[in-house]
Amino acid sequence: MPSNGYQRYTPGERRKQRNKRIIIEFVVCAVLILPTLFPPANNFGKYLAQKIILGKVTLQPNSGGLQTWLNPPVDTTRNYYLFNITNPIDITTDPSNTLIDVQDTPAYSYKVKTIKNNIQWFDDNTKLSYEVERLITRDPKNFPVSSANDSGVFVNLLRAIFRTQFLKKPSDSFFDIGGFDPFSQANPIDLLEGFTSPLFDTIRAKMVGPNTNLSGFVYRQNGSRLYNISIDTNLNRKGQVSTFSSELVSFDIVSPNHYPFPIYDSVTYPTMLFDKPVLNIFHADFCRPILLQYHRTVELYDGISAFEYRVKFIDINNCTDPSDTTTCQEVDKLDVSSCISSSLRDNTMFLSKAHFYGSTEEVITNMNIRGFNASREKHDSVVYFEPHTGSPLEASFRMQLNIDATIDPMKVIDGEYKWKMRKGVERLIPIFWIDQVVKLDKNKIDELKKAGTLMTYSKWFLFGLSIIVSISFIIIMELCARRLDRKKQNAHKGYVKADTLVYH
Question: Are residues 99 and 117 in contact, defined by beta-carbon separation less than 8 angstroms?
Answer without folding.
Answer: no
